[in-house]
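May I ask for a protein sequence together with how it folds?
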Amino acid sequence: MPASSSPARTRVVFLEDDVPFRGFVTGLLHDSQRYEVIAQAGTAEAAAAWPAQLRPAVALVDIALPGAPGTAAVRGLLDKFPGLVVVMLTARTDDECILDAIKAGALGYIAKGLDSADLVAALDDACAGGAPMSPVIARRVLALMRDAPSPAAQRAARSSGTVALEPLTPREHEVLSLVATGASDKEAAARLGISLSAVKQHLAHVYAKWRVRSRTEAAIKFTQAGR
């Protein structure tokens, strides 16, 4: 009997200037049998030269790079590869870097030092529609939400014209309210009794209305606005 063909691996590009670490992660993903690193670079400028025909599904990106920062590379990658899932893999855990990455369009933020199995699981989560974050990063994001202006202050700012978030439809509001509490796209679809593609479409509408590029940035705006 002919051998059954193995399932196609998810195509990954990796932007990291630490060559030994890059090699370690590349080997780890290869051994997982689920991922294939198809291109690597050590600078944002080198990543900008990747051809559009590369068609990666996932990008692992470090923030601290020689030359332009990783967040600049994220914007360029998302412009070139629509639908790309970007996960930051970095040692930087300060507030400015976290927010810059989220605003650039990163869907996940993983601190270096994570166990090998947990790193692969984080990529699995991102590919399934989740927004993986290392515990230390999740705590920082929650702290940023807590330190944000109160809902009353946000409403006052909106009424004065300094903040203008376009209204959401009832369904968009339901989807985003679940996402803001940590639900994956699949979980939101199950709880609302709608298809996964419908959830993704509603989120795409939210991104366009609020001019954000990721579910995490949308969730932060939703929480800060006291919706």
Observations:
- Strands lie at 10-15, 35-41, 58-61, 85-90, 108-111.
